[in-house]
Amino acid sequence: MVIAKKYVVLNPFVGEPKKSDFKIVEEELAELQENEFLAEAAFISVDPYQRMKLGASFPCDMIGGQVAKVIESKNPDYPVGTWVMGHFGWRTHTITKPENEKFCMQKPYLHKLPDFGDLPVSLALGVCGRVGNTAYLGFTEICQPKAGETVVVSGAAGAVGSHVGQIAKILGCRVIGFAGTDEKCEWLIKELGFDYAGNYKTTDISKFLKDSAPNGVDCYFDNVGGELSTMVMSQMNQYGRVAVCGAISTYNETDPEKRKATILQPLIVSKQLKIEGFLVNRYADRTLEGIHQNLKWVKEGKLKYKEHVTDGFETAVDAFIGLFRGDNIGKSLVQVK
Amino acid sequence: MVIAKKYVVLNPFVGEPKKSDFKIVEEELAELQENEFLAEAAFISVDPYQRMKLGASFPCDMIGGQVAKVIESKNPDYPVGTWVMGHFGWRTHTITKPENEKFCMQKPYLHKLPDFGDLPVSLALGVCGRVGNTAYLGFTEICQPKAGETVVVSGAAGAVGSHVGQIAKILGCRVIGFAGTDEKCEWLIKELGFDYAGNYKTTDISKFLKDSAPNGVDCYFDNVGGELSTMVMSQMNQYGRVAVCGAISTYNETDPEKRKATILQPLIVSKQLKIEGFLVNRYADRTLEGIHQNLKWVKEGKLKYKEHVTDGFETAVDAFIGLFRGDNIGKSLVQVK
Questions:
Q1: Hey, which residues does A310 pair with through a beta bridge?
Q2: What is the pLDDT of residue B258?
Q3: Least CA distance to A258: which residue of chain B?
Q4: Domain A130-280 maps to which CATH number in 3.40.50.720, 3.50.50.60, 2.40.100.20, 2.60.40.730?
Q5: Is the confidence at residue B44, as pLDDT, over 90?
Q6: What ipTM was assigned to the predicted interfaces of this complex?
Q7: Contact A277 B279 (CB under 8 A)
Q8: Which CATH number is A3-126+305-335 given?
Q9: What is the rounded CA–CA span in Å between residue A195 and residue A189?
Q10: pTM of the entire predicted model
Q11: How far is A223 from chain B (nearest CA, A)?
């Protein structure tokens, strides 16, 4: 009999998530039924969206993707040894079958990993997974970037932001990133090839943009929201396009006054901006297309990535809290096995 | 020799426009040259956008559309007696020719009036003109409304808003308007057929929307911006569409803190909203199509309108100031002759 460990969220988060909001629970798994397999987690994914997408009733199981290996199977499509990506939540062992997709809010629920060659399987949670598809599909579909245009990325040192900026460079754009430490900005410029990167905490943002984007901003990929976004939009060109991927600046903010920023509507009208929010779920039917495109760029050396890996199932909550404090550079992961 | 009177704006507006920001100047007009005609204004248009679209140097001529009659002509396409709509500014007499379009920021610069039958020529500045096209083209193109959907309109008793709500009814939508007085709300429901209308100054907006839009809001046509818009968007459905036509709540606001509202990005992401600002100029090549569609609806009795007419060239500034105080129901016009 297999004992699974899983994280349960005890109550809704108020402000920053706390350790006491979570509990690790052990669970005895049943025998495999026809068509089921048992997967053992190798890495679990820690993402800002998990803050927002929990269910309405508590306690509830923590959501999230994981890379896992099939260690027992009654499903001939998923033989022992198969590597999968699955939205099984934060848990060590899972008995499931493809049909369980209908119970899952995150799409895709389950897919086999492509052949990563010498690359680590953890990429299936980052640059060659949901995060990579968020960057690739969200940016290209919503911002419709063209060579020679100027692109701004907020949260640029995060997993999605750092990926978006590199795609923009591949497509021939001028790329400006905003991040929260000088170390992150240096990484963006020196390692990832961003043209400019500014520390939004210490930089005069308007002046920085005037200097780095003298012809104005055409595309803005926003992970942050708030006053920074208003300032970026104030320097956009006519018919500028904005993809809103996240609003991490306010996820943990409980003071209503601090959730306010200078309103966007006068800019939206006068510049005829198009702003669209998206969740990567909408592109679920293009999952493998996106993974293969990103994998190709990684293998060609055009797309670099960084993983922020913490070791051990018990480190997940600390890693999660760290996301909102800006502790991570690149994709945050927990190595379970 | 003809003496024209025109309004000159002496300096940029600070806060609410003031009478002392304007001066009426007399100007001797030259002799007509080949291809030119002399037009005498009958009505001049008073619109919120005029607040925003002045040039960068002062003093400058006040911008705006007018309905005028050709009273002298050296252009065979515009014989004496022709009625035209022209963006000539706030002035009584104008010598021009179609080629002057290149000097005008407002599109279309000039067109002949269609046959209005028994209807007044002033409609060419309202329901069958730029305002009507703003409503018809902006709403249908950007919001893509479908029968059975729920549509919210802010600034609903203004010229554009009252028109949008009626089109939404023609298209089979549930229509909710917000306006600033009970009298305006009553007009929207009793005369124009809105399903619901709320006084945003006295109503609990969130509760009002929950009651009037129990299935959520699909389309929002926004003339106002600010906290009202955040509240509307918080009750939108997945993939909701927002057309941003104006932001009159802040045009005259000089206190930066009062230009703030609860940020939209968390709503934009989680509901995957698409928000697009527009200026009717972008549809200039569809001007006559829009006018004929709106004229057809007016003649069929499906589209009602109200004109807020003040009498005399000298009343224009008062009418303009009144726009931002909510004095008008329907299209604000100045009758010159």
A1: A334
A2: 87
A3: B262
A4: 3.40.50.720
A5: yes
A6: 0.90
A7: no
A8: 3.90.180.10
A9: 6
A10: 0.91
A11: 9
